[in-house]
């Protein structure tokens, strides 16, 4: 049935168009928000506008009937919920961002939804036909601390080994050097930040929180105490230091477990795109909202910093990356085979409406269009897609991991390197620690079916494992 709908919809596409986008996975950061240092964090009006216009750009790209590369069979004006999977962690800022993005993707359809009653009265749905598109919540465990309210990166991930790894950064010589060299700099900014940060906290350990606090103020505050201290040079220095700090927590080429968020995202992207293909386009659009740390971890794993050091920087508000399934095969005779399908990666470092997404080659390769099979094998070098693998590389044996470890692949002890049937090879560090925030992606499969009547992605036991693991994570501020 789905493929029949697919074929029918193709008839409507211009035949001259060689390339067809069959589906897309979009991962986006939230828009402008209040500072993490002043929790609870909220999306601002400016932030809502950023993600809304970003959604509008994607609409013009893939959804609208006059889109540049309309995805076949995708509903054009009225969202068909079975075609979309949208997720975001249980977090004000991320949930609201996803909602605003969806309003750009499928704006109110007033005139289309206006209906005439038997007595000839015309009725338009509330809010001009606002479309109610559910955003499935990703359980971000560590309960009290939702991701945008927590200044720390690795946190609620519940992945013990990743926590240990990120903590290791804080005792690395690189960190200590930066800490010592920047101490005077941060102390000199106390007149600007002392209503929120004590002298004890004015150092490199809080590089991101301090940058974030000042950056938000430069966007929103009419008056900033001692603002004369904030020269362009100082603002740049704050940003550079924050970037160094966050990158250090998110990725280390010789310790890939640190990038667990990127590994989990890779697993989700693979599964989602594969579902689009095996379902012959029944569910072509996947959207997930998450934190900048997920971008950083993924960028590191996908070797994007080999193209530019810029990829080691924290991405801008409303930044997004998109994985497109593309084909040059004629789609009028049926859904293309995987041999004819390629993947293209795009990134926009801000609202897609302001910064047009650009293609970049992944995995240190030169091609920006990779055959599906190549994409899969490259992603599988670091993707984590199921519970036993996650439990094993994270060194978690409690909660749902208890059952998964008793059924198999565990048994590795500290500092061994193990390999799963999936081709995942990550060093296992062992030890138990507690740290920071990455809640985000890990729970992504833990979909809570908020509204009834939806058929969405299949529930994976990974979710349960993660939720359980998250519950066990401490959240020390290392
Ligand atoms: C965020 O919104 C909540 C609820 O309206 C409010 O209590 C809180 O002060 C806001 N946070 C900031 C930083 O404005
Ligand atoms: C038409 O029907 C609707 C729904 O029953 C009702 O609310 C409305 O008042 C009716 N309009 C007229 C002009 O009778
Ligand atoms: C990266 O990991 C290696 C090996 O664990 C370690 O020697 C190095 O200090 C780490 N670098 C940072 C910046 O954490
Ligand atoms: C913050 O610094 C300013 C300028 O040095 C000083 O006047 C003020 O008392 C300080 N405020 C706090 C809360 O320490
Ligand atoms: C900006 O304004 C907010 C709200 O008034 C305040 O809490 C915050 O401390 C200010 N930030 C700076 C750097 O002055
Ligand atoms: C500081 O940067 C802003 C925005 O980039 C620019 O408009 C301004 O001229 C710069 N100021 C100085 C003193 O360079
Ligand atoms: C795609 O899904 C099919 C059917 O579930 C499965 O057999 C195949 O291994 C999957 N391929 C990838 C690359 O995940
Ligand atoms: C995105 O923008 C931020 C902020 O300007 C910058 O630090 C970062 O390097 C940029 N990333 C890329 C990939 O361009
Ligand atoms: C389709 O063909 C064009 C022109 O040869 C090429 O640039 C593009 O990469 C191809 N796309 C795919 C998905 O193979
Ligand atoms: C792992 O270490 C524990 C405690 O050191 C030991 O009892 C157990 O036998 C080890 N397991 C394997 C598979 O080596």
TrEMBL record:
Annotated keywords: Membrane, Signal, Transmembrane, Transmembrane helix
A Pfam short name: His_Phos_2
Gene3D superfamilies documented for this protein: Phosphoglycerate mutase-like
Domain of life, per lineage: Eukaryota
Record keyword Signal present: yes
Positions of transmembrane segments: 428-451
Claim: Transmembrane is one of the keywords in the record: yes
SUPFAM superfamilies in the cross-refs: Phosphoglycerate mutase-like
Family: Belongs to the histidine acid phosphatase family.
PANTHER family membership: ACID PHOSPHATASE-RELATED (PTHR11567), PHOSPHOGLYCERATE MUTASE-LIKE PROTEIN (PTHR11567:SF142)
Name of this chain's protein: Acid phosphatase
């Amino acid at each position: 049935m789905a493929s029949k709908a697919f074929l029918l919809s193709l008839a409507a596409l211009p035949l001259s168009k060689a390339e067809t986008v069959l589906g897309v996975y979009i991962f986006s950061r939230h828009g402008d928000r209040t500072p993490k240092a002043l929790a609870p964090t909220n999306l601002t009006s400016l932030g809502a506008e950023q993600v809304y216009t970003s959604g509008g750009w994607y609409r013009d790209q893939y959804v609208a009937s006059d889109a540049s590369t309309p995805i076949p069979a995708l509903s054009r004006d009225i969202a068909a919920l079975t075609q979309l999977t949208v997720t975001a962690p249980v977090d004000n800022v991320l949930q609201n961002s996803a909602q605003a993005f969806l309003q750009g993707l499928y704006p109110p359809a007033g005139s289309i939804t206006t209906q005439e009653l038997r007595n000839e009265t015309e009725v338009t749905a509330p809010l001009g036909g606002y479309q109610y598109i559910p955003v499935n919540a990703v359980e971000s465990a560590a309960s009290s601390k939702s991701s945008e309210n927590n200044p720390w990166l690795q946190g609620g991930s519940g992945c013990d080994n990743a926590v240990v790894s990120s903590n290791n950064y804080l005792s690395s010589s690189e960190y200590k050097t930066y800490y010592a060299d920047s101490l005077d700099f941060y102390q000199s900014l106390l007149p600007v930040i002392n209503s929120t940060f004590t002298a004890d906290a004015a150092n490199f350990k809080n590089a991101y929180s301090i940058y974030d606090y000042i950056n938000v103020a430069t966007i929103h505050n009419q008056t900033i105490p001692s603002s004369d201290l904030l020269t362009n040079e100082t603002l740049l220095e704050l940003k550079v230091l924050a970037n160094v700090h966050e990158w250090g927590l998110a990725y280390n080429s010789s310790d890939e477990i640190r990038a667990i968020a990127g590994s989990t995202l890779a697993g989700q992207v693979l599964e989602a795109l594969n579902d689009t293909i095996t379902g012959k386009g029944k569910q072509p659009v996947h959207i997930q909202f998450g934190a900048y740390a997920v971008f950083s971890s993924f960028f590191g794993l996908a070797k994007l910093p080999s193209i530019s050091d810029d990829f080691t920087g924290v991405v801008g508000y409303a930044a997004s990356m998109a994985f497109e399934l593309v084909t040059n095969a004629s789609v009028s005779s049926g859904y293309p085979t995987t041999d004819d399908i390629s993947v293209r990666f795009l990134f926009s470092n801000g609202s897609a409406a302001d910064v047009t997404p650009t293609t970049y080659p992944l995995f240190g390769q030169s091609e920006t269009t990779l055959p599906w099979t190549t994409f899969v094998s490259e992603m599988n070098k670091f993707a984590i897609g199921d519970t036993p693998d996650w439990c094993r590389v994270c060194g978690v044996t409690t909660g749902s991991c208890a059952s998964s470890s008793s059924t198999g692949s565990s048994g590795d002890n500290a500092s061994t390197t193990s390999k799963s049937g999936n081709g995942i090879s990550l060093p296992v560090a062992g030890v138990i620690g507690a740290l920071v925030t990455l809640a985000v992606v890990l729970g992504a499969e833990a979909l809570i079916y908020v509204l009834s009547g939806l058929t969405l992605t299949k529930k994976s036991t990974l979710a349960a494992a993660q939720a359980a693991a998250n519950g066990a994570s401490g959240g020390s501020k290392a």
